[in-house]
Each structure stands twice: as structure tokens, then as C-alpha cells.
Amino acid sequence: MKVEIPQVHWQGDRESIFSIDFLPFTNFFVTCGYDNDESMFIRFWQWEKNDQISEGERIKENSKEPDNVNSTLTWKPVFKYGDRSQNGAPNVVKFSPLGNKMVSAGVQDIASIWDYKLRYVEMGKTEMEHRWGVCKTLRGHFSEISDVSWSRDEKYLATGSIDNTAILWNVEKGVQLQRFEQHKNYVSGVTIDPLFNYIITQSNDKTVKVHKNTESKSIKFYYKNNIYKRKYLIDEEGKQVSLSKEEEDEIYDSKAMQDEKQYKVVNERMFLDDTECFSFSRRADFSPDGSFFILPCGIYHPVPGEKEKKYASYGFIRNNISEPAFILPSPSTTPLVVRFHPALFERKEEDTPFIDLPYISVFAIATMEDIFIYTTRSLYPYASISNIHYAELTDLAWTTREHQDIEKSGSKLMACSRDGFITLVDFDEGELGTQLTQTQLPENISSLFDYLTIDSLTSEPVGETEVKEVIIPKFKSRKSKPQVTEAIPDAKHPEEMKIETNPK
């Protein structure tokens, strides 16, 4: 694993970057954010091998020579073109899973749909080339849009807004299918289940709403569940009690049984409000097979029933969305973004994943300051990366090489920040495991990775995904890092970038 921070003015003169995304299975990517001359809020780039250096020259993990960082990059970003048609800086950009469309949305209350076709390079000029451009706009929100999510077949799009609502759109027709109005504060995150059975919205009102598809001929989601608190029992010693759901429900309903067994019922809220988390977005994500999803911006109590709180992300499996299956603590700052690797990996005989599926998933969580990379082989992070930016991290994006060569490829993870820089995490071939091809996947999810239509998908992923109790891994304390609250204009990147693999 190599970490590189190119010294590039991605958005204007080191203006904030709000979102990034890869075109699926390519090194082509998009950035969006502020621009000091308000001319190119959206820019398109390509990672290319840096031919000027030898293969072995990489950025050093604890480099104290940031002035020389560009000369040691393995990959260099090449600017392709920018777009001047946007009215205001977008908060989010995302390519569709098929790579045929893109959406941008932000300060305006509209979502712009993009496609790739032959276009004039500049207005008034005759020169034309294939490039991305706006082909359609979706209007329906009353204020700026904070997050977006595509359906796997790219026919539908969900948007969340600070008008306290989320909307499901038919992209082809450009019409609003359904408006979700259950939240009492900003909708800061939205994600669509790859199997199109659930839409999940997360809000600054400390709740997550789960909406389920009626699975009728017409698309219609109904409000199914409100995720906002954990309820559990502790014994007289203050330890959490592990019982079957039936036993727990019986005790919850009987004060006499609680007194008899000397159990105490604990109710703890799970998520931060806007006075505790100042980030604009809370970007949850589903695993690529739809078997589970992870919600950021959480809090939990490491000692049951006590007041001490720590930041965390909550994981839920699709066959039990009423309570978390696992908790991933964040040692220092609030987790903001969850992003899953688009491929699945081979499960070896010695693997004992915490979710029992015949393959391994990989995902990354960005907190305000750090990046944690996980695989489902362990609840402990595979790697952590810190001291890389001076301001809040805002988004993550994964890619791997073309699908037909997927088993031969490495992977890339990008993270962007309000300090105007991007971090590239480059994984060697096989470092995360052996990526599975579509033909190697179980039959009932293989169509998800062959990019077929939603109509051909089965309703549930393969395998038993029940996790019997909430598992909370513990982290060793780390050395405190310098407290830097804003970008330093002449700085290249924070000193002593810290990379840890397999921390225990």
C-alpha cells in the first residue's frame, strides 16, 4: 500500500474539494468544489503512470521533504477538461454504476444529469470531441442538495436535501417518483440498496429512516423503520447481557422480570446531531452485494450504561435492520463517509469473517482526520492513515481495473478534503486479496456484477448473515497529532504522515 499526495491545484487556488468519484473500473475521475474565479466547479482528470520515475520510487511514509513530493509520485493526475455550465459549487458528484451517466448536485436545488457524447469544446468554436456534459436537470427540492445515490441499473436516483426531504427520481423520464418527508432536520445522506429493496436516509435530527420497496409492479417505497437508539440489558455488575431476542423482548415488557433477574434496561441514542457534528454530509453505503450497510456519524458508550461516549460507525445486516450487528469505533474524530470497494474478494479457508458470506468485502471509512480501511475478515482495520490533511475529509472513492481483468488488478482509493488536496492510496495486485470475477460469484448475486437490470435480481443475497451479538472491537490509544484547524497556504501536506497496517 502506497500513499501519495500530489501537489495540484485541483479546484482553483487550493479551494475546498467537496466530492470525488471514479468512472467505474477506470482511472478517470471527477472532482467538484469551490473555484476562486467561479469558472470550473467540476473538473475531469485521469491518473496516469509517472514515466519520469523508476517503479521503485514512491512517496515515503514519513516524508519530511514535501517540496520533492511530485518528483516521487508513482501516479500523476492529468487534467482533461472542466465544465463552466454549473451555477454554483456542487456538494456531490457521482458516476452511475454502469458508467453511462453522472450526477452533480449542490448549492442550487437541482440535480444535473450528465452523459458522455460528442460536444463542442467551446461555445462559438467548431471543434468537437467526446466529453461529459449536462443533458438533463431534475427539479423538486426547495434548497440545496447534500447527497445522491444511484440504483444499480442507473434508472433511478435518490437525492437528499437540507429542505429535510429526500426524493426518488426516474432518471430516464426526469420525473419525481416519491418524496420522503419523515425527517425533522437536514437530510445529509442517502443510499440505495443494490437490490433496490431499501432506501436509507440519514439526517441531522439524529435518526436514520429505512424505506422498503413494496415489490409491486409500480415503484413505491414505504416507511419501515426508524434507527435512532440502541436498547439492551445490563446485569447488576454493569455488563451487557446476551440473550435471545425472544427472551429480551419478554424482559423488556416485564418490570417484574427485570427486578427478579436484577437487569436494567438501557436506551442509548446512536447518532450525532448538528451541534456535535458540523459536517455537511453523512455518507453511508451498502456493500456491493447488498448484504449489509454501514452508517457513519454514530456514538456509543464503551461502558454500558455510563456517560462516557465515543465516535463510531454502525453496521446492519439486511435481514435485521432493527439493531446493529457490529460497531466500528473511531478513536479520535467523527466518521463521516463510508465507501465500499466495488468488487468482492476470495474467502480463504483460514478466514473467519464477522459476516458469514462466501466472499470478502472491503470498505473504507473517513473520519474528519483519518482513513480506516477494513475487510470483513476482521473488525479491526486492515490499515489506518492519518496526518494527511489540514482540514476535514469530505469524500472517498474506489476503483479497480477493467472488469475483464479484475482478477489481475490492484485497487485505488482516493480521499478529498476541504484543504484543497487529494490523497491517493494505491494497493498492489493481490494486496487486499484475490478479486472475484462475475463467473466466480454465487449465482443469485452474480447479475449485480454483470451489470444486468434490476428485474433479473433475486431479492436476497446468498449466505447466512446473522450476527448473534453486537461486537465492539477495542482500539489502542494513539499518539496525539498536531491540532491544525485550517489549511496553511504554503504547506504541501502535514508533516509525518502516519500509515499503520494491521493495528491491534
UniProtKB/TrEMBL annotation:
InterPro entries: Beta-prop_CAF1B_HIR1 (IPR055410), PTHR15271 (IPR045145), WD40/YVTN_repeat-like_dom_sf (IPR015943), WD40_repeat_CS (IPR019775), WD40_repeat_dom_sf (IPR036322), WD40_rpt (IPR001680). Coiled coil: none annotated. One of its GO terms (biological process) is DNA repair. WD repeats lie at residues 138-179. The keyword DNA repair applies. One of its GO terms (cellular component) is CAF-1 complex. The keyword Cell inner membrane does not apply. It is found in: Nucleus. Keywords: Chromatin regulator, DNA damage, DNA repair, Nucleus, Repeat, WD repeat. Its main location: nucleus. Residues 1-231, 257-432 form the CAF1B/HIR1 beta-propeller domain. Residues 477-504 are annotated as: Disordered. Residues 489-504 have a biased composition (Basic and acidic residues). SUPFAM superfamilies: WD40 repeat-like. Belongs to the WD repeat HIR1 family. This is CAF1B/HIR1 beta-propeller domain-containing protein. The lineage of its organism: Eukaryota, Sar, Alveolata, Ciliophora, Intramacronucleata.
